[in-house]
Amino acid sequence: MADTSDFRNGMTFLWKDDLWEIAEFLHVKPGKGGAFVRTTLKNVKDGHEVEETFRAGAKVDEVRVERREHQYLYEDDYGLHFMDQESYEQFSMPPGQVQGREFLKEGGQVDILFRTDTEEPLRTEIPQKVELEVVETTPGVKGDTAQGGDKPATVESGATIDVPLFINEGDVVRVNTETNEYETRVSAAPTV
Predict the structure, then answer these.
(1) Total domains present in the chain
(2) E strand map for the chain
(3) Do residues 120 and 135 share a domain?
(4) Which of 92, 125, 158 is the last residue of a domain?
(5) Is residue 192 assigned to a domain?
(6) What is the pTM of this model?
(7) Arithmetic mean of pLDDT, 5-27
(8) Which domain holds residue 92?
(9) Whole-number pLDDT of residue 33
(10) Among 6, 92, 95, 192, fewest CB within 10 Å belongs to which?
(11) Are residues 31 and 76 in the same domain?
């Protein structure tokens, strides 16, 4: 058991039948009345945030969470399959627990959060920036780049993003997975 004096950013605890991580907290001691702690909590499984206030000294059940690197293998009717990089154990997760799955490509690296007391996988965290090959887009026309602008492109993971007009099929682009936006071209498609 922990209490509000143990609160720190990143601490995970069981509250209202769910796992929550402290994103921010602030101890408040008003001139009148008792002290309290104002927090921003992030749900460990689905990532949504809530504001919550705890009385000073309130008790919570702390839960230890561990981040482990895994390799994404494939997706089928049973879910998305991953392999532990150290033990080579494989398991699947339902699509709802896999954040950013539209940017996962087979063989890609992903961190998975586990509840250590039950070994339950909680959620995935993909890298903030991934490099993906453009598999489908309209061809660029000479002179289009002068005006700028964007066009839709499908990358090898299946996601569709907006890219500049000069991007062609076969180009490798860097994508920000938090904003779902194109960042830069990493390499151009080989010319035939």
Answers:
(1) 3
(2) 2-3, 12-15, 18-28, 36-43, 49-55, 59-62, 65-76, 79-84, 90-93, 109-115, 120-125, 129-137, 150-155, 160-164, 172-176, 181-187
(3) no
(4) 125
(5) no
(6) 0.73
(7) 92
(8) 65-125
(9) 85
(10) 192
(11) no
